[in-house]
Write a structure and sequence with these properties.
Elements lengths: L1 E2 L13 E2 L7 H10 L2 H5 L18 H22 L12 H10 L8 H11 L8 H12 L12 H7 L6 H4 L33 H8 L4 H7 L2 E2 L9 E2 L4 H25 L4 H8 L4 H4 L10 H8 L3 H17 L2 E4 L7 H4 E4 L2 H19 L2 H23 L1 H4 L2 H10 L4 H13 L3 H12 L11
Antiparallel strand pairs: 1-2, 3-4, 5-6
Length: 453
């Protein structure tokens, strides 16, 4: 083996050795490891917004992540053209790293979407909590089986890119009134908003974050990990900053779930032309303010395409994606940062961002908050909480052998570590696996000793 490390951002926590005649860059190695990992494959069977089984057309976490990677690559290409020869260019990531960051961004999300995330945070309320982005960092750097101790052992820059919120759970969480512990049985009910986690990384990954941020100066690290108060005293605190690579990925994610989830909603009939026109009534300036930025349209002309033939809808969604990609720019988030990787953020011009937010608000009101979607989300929460309760009540009895071995090793470090193993097991399930295991354990006339999940 040979060692070929170009710079500090290519370093890994484990071995930095490469195979003989290795032709790939470190970012290409990261991308290869991710694509061939089991957590990435499981995204094909995890909910995006609309539940799996509704149709084979609607997006899953996997297809969403692929679309985010495609949009992220487009944003990066535009930024490279726009800032060619300028100071900002040197801080932009390469295309393989951008692909890896985008494809990895959702691998920590549990079954049943954000409903599953809330349920696991409820279950872990006394043991360090749960948050999907924090779990992504944990999977990449600790849980995946590519290496014995360091997960996929990603490069430092990939870790920085997926570190969407660089503040730990315990610094941000505002705990709500105590409710029944999941270990006390299946008699539970809670308001979902009370257990929505803070946007953070998990305290158990503090050493990994320290590794990712170590090349920055002490002042940059202190400022980058600072946080702000929530809107009220009962709201979680919020991380104040994101790194440049993260903002490109985040922007690609926002564009995707605003426009591609809109496409799914229209196809399902959950958003109609009448809803669209009513939503934008009195807001025509959102379209006219974008004119001249590779865009010319009105709410009515876009409605003609969105709610017309399917090929016109595809062309219209593509046109809106193009508007957002082509208008991206870099903005100085805080001039006091010494590193350009922290100082610059990728953003949309105000006019384009207002249009994107307005479109997303329509999706949120008509799809995400729709009572049928919320009922399915509640069902997913119920399934996760009750499944977790059973596993936590007697881990030696109910955990599969491989997970039980990890649990018995970790429990010696304290109950928090043991509960985290159970949380890792449940959060790594696909929607289908979680449903089948729930039925096997808790539904009469379901389950057999011969079942293979």
């Amino acid at each position: 083996m040979i060692q070929r490390i170009k710079n500090v951002w290519d370093e890994r926590r484990g071995s930095n050795d490469t195979r003989e005649e290795e032709i790939r860059s470190e970012a290409q190695r990261d991308l290869s490891r991710l694509i061939h990992s089991s957590p990435f494959r499981r995204l094909q069977s995890k909910t995006q917004v609309l539940g799996l089984g509704e149709s084979d057309f609607y997006r899953t976490r996997l297809t969403h992540s692929m679309e985010v990677a495609q949009i992220g690559s487009g944003l990066l290409a535009k930024l490279r053209i726009k800032y060619q020869g300028k100071e900002e260019e040197q801080f932009l990531p390469d295309i393989d790293l951008m692909q890896a960051v985008c494809l990895a961004h959702d691998i920590g999300h549990p079954p049943f979407g954000h409903g599953g995330e809330v349920a696991l945070n409820y279950c872990m309320q006394d043991y360090g909590g749960f948050e999907g982005n924090g779990q992504t960092l944990r999977i990449l750097s600790r849980l995946d089986k590519y290496t014995q101790e360091h997960g996929l052992d990603p490069t430092r820059r990939l870790l920085l890119g997926v570190l969407k919120y660089p503040v730990k759970y315990s610094d941000l969480v505002v705990k709500k009134a105590k409710v029944t512990s999941p270990e006390q049985g299946l008699n539970w009910l809670f308001k979902s908003s009370d257990f929505k986690p803070p946007k953070c990384y998990l305290d158990s990954e503090s050493d990994i974050v320290e590794f990712a941020l170590s090349p920055f100066s002490q002042d940059d690290r202190a400022q980058f990990t600072s946080f702000e108060n929530g809107e009220t005293d009962v709201d979680h605190k919020k991380a104040a900053y994101k790194a440049l690579d993260t903002t490109i990925m985040d922007l690609a994610d926002e564009i995707s779930y605003s426009l591609h989830d809109l496409e799914d909603a229209i196809s399902l009939g959950m958003v109609t032309r009448e809803m669209w026109m009513q939503h934008f009534c009195g807001h025509e300036n959102l379209f006219t303010n974008c004119h001249g930025i590779t865009f010319a349209g009105t709410s009515e002309s876009i409605a003609d395409s969105l709610f017309g033939e399917s090929y016109k809808r595809k062309e219209c969604i593509g046109m809106l994606v193009h508007l957002m990609i082509s208008s991206v720019k870099l903005k100085v988030k805080n001039a006091s940062f010494e590193s350009g990787m922290l100082k610059y953020n990728a953003v949309l011009p105000d006019a384009v961002e207002k249009l994107r937010l307005k479109i997303f608000k329509l999706v949120k009101e008509k799809v995400i908050k729709h009572e049928n979607v919320q009922l399915l989300e509640f069902k997913g929460q119920k399934l996760i909480v009750e499944l977790f309760s059973v596993l936590a009540s007697d881990p030696d009895r109910f955990l599969p052998a491989s997970t039980r071995e990890v649990y018995n090793r970790q429990i010696s470090s304290g109950k928090n570590a043991g509960m985290r193993v159970i949380c890792d097991y449940v959060s790594g399930m696909t929607d289908d696996y979680a449903t089948k295991l729930y039925e096997k354990i808790l539904v009469p006339r379901k389950g057999s000793i011969f079942d293979r999940l």
